[in-house]
Write a structure and sequence with these properties.
The structure is a single chain. The chain has seven helices and 15 strands. By secondary structure, the chain is α/β, with parallel strands linked by helices. The strands form four sheets. A seven-stranded mixed beta sheet has the order 2-3-6-10-9-8-7, with no helix packed on it. Strand 9 and strand 10 form a beta hairpin. The longest helix has 18 residues. The chain is globular. The structure holds zinc ion (2 copies). One zinc ion (ZN) binds next to loops.
Length: about 350
């Protein structure tokens, strides 16, 4: 647990928060006019180790060599040259901040942080954070790593680092909503995994098991990878599952929800999948009949609530896919670079 304080005057700027892995959707932009929920669960924070925020430099000013030195191996529109280590918290977990009225720019429905930090420390006036709540963005407060300081909070047990965390009962992000729309969180998490799957495929087709794994990945893999060569096989692996069969080449393994650490799967190539999504693929929640008391005549069956089914094919997030693929060293191989170029030049074309 930690609280974050103003680096200028030590005023407390957050509630007590515990660290979790950086969510896959942190840089996701999801459809103009769509108001997304809050990025971080209440009581948690995450750290973005890449530079973030202004100033930005465009790809043609940076060049491939300089980008590669900071772990970006394929063209991107622009890279941030702000400080690394931004801290994301839920807006409701901030304390003692005020908006800076002249920096409250946004596109249409709220603030998007285009003018730099828009929240100041209430006590000393130092700009300390950026509140983002415009449509298309996950609502969050991004604490400026150069303007705040993390202080360990006392009297709290150290956070557990066990894989037990995957099986704890907690609110899980449902894959579709009541209207049958796929969850943007699933689209972002699957896009990260899809980029890693392509890198692990070595350019061969990848076969995935029928069921929820196929729902997320089969169409995208079949569309992006050329047919013809013998397929590599991917399957779920991880805590509570038996070791993968010998013919499995690629293990879809969970990342730890708190540390971001990837489950180790000896003998196979491991491809990471966000822990809460992995858990739902391993044991999809089935809707069990709920006993009801009174009101219904004998012989009448309840047909509600109806099970949630998607009304479209699943589409991984285009932007998150490109963001991830550009940061995998394998994208320097010609076949994968061609896939990156094709996807980048045709925004949102099938399978995105
Ligand atoms: Zn809007
Ligand atoms: Zn201050």
């Amino acid at each position: 647990m930690a609280v974050f304080v103003c680096a200028g005057c030590d005023a407390v700027l957050t509630a007590q928060v515990s660290r979790v892995a950086l969510p896959a959707e942190v840089h996701q932009i999801w459809g103009n006019g769509t108001l997304l929920p809050v990025l971080m669960e209440a009581g948690t924070y995450a750290v973005d180790l890449e530079p973030s925020g202004p100033p930005w430099r465009r790809w043609d000013e940076i060049g491939a060599d300089e980008a590669a030195e900071r772990g970006v191996y394929a063209p991107v529109f622009a890279l941030s040259y702000g400080a690394p280590g931004a801290v994301f918290v839920a807006p409701g977990d901030t304390r003692g901040t005020v908006l800076i009225p002249e920096r409250c720019g946004g596109f249409c429905c709220g603030l998007d942080g285009r003018d730099g930090p828009n929240l100041a420390c209430e006590r000393c006036g130092r700009a300390v954070a950026t509140r983002i709540d415009d449509c298309s963005y996950w609502q969050s407060v991004r604490l400026d790593p150069e303007a705040v300081r993390g202080v360990p909070a006392e009297d709290v047990a150290p956070e557990a680092d066990s894989w037990q965390a995957l099986t704890e009962p907690r609110d899980r992000t449902p894959r579709v909503d009541q209207c049958g729309r796929w969850s943007p969180r699933w689209a972002a998490a699957a896009a990260v995994t899809l980029a890693h799957l392509l890198a692990a495929s070595d350019g061969a087709p990848v076969a995935v098991p029928d069921g929820p794994v196929a729902d997320l990945f089969r169409h995208a893999l079949d569309t992006l990878l050329p047919a013809g060569r013998p397929a590599r096989t991917a399957a779920l692996a991880g805590p509570s599952l038996p070791a993968p069969d010998p013919e499995v080449d690629i293990a879809l393994v969970p990342t730890h929800p708190r540390t971001g650490r990837t489950w180790q799967s000896p003998g196979t190539v491991a491809v990471p999948l966000a822990g809460d999504i992995w858990t739902q693929l391993v044991s999809p929640q089935r809707q069990l009949p709920i006993p009801v008391a009174g009101g219904m005549p004998d012989g009448v069956f309840r047909d509600d609530p109806l099970p949630l089914h998607p009304h479209t094919l699943f589409r991984p997030d285009w932007g998150v896919f490109l963001h991830t693929l550009a940061r995998l060293p394998a994208v320097r191989e010609r076949w994968l670079r061609e896939i990156h170029e094709r996807v980048r030049n045709r925004p949102y074309a099938d399978p995105f």
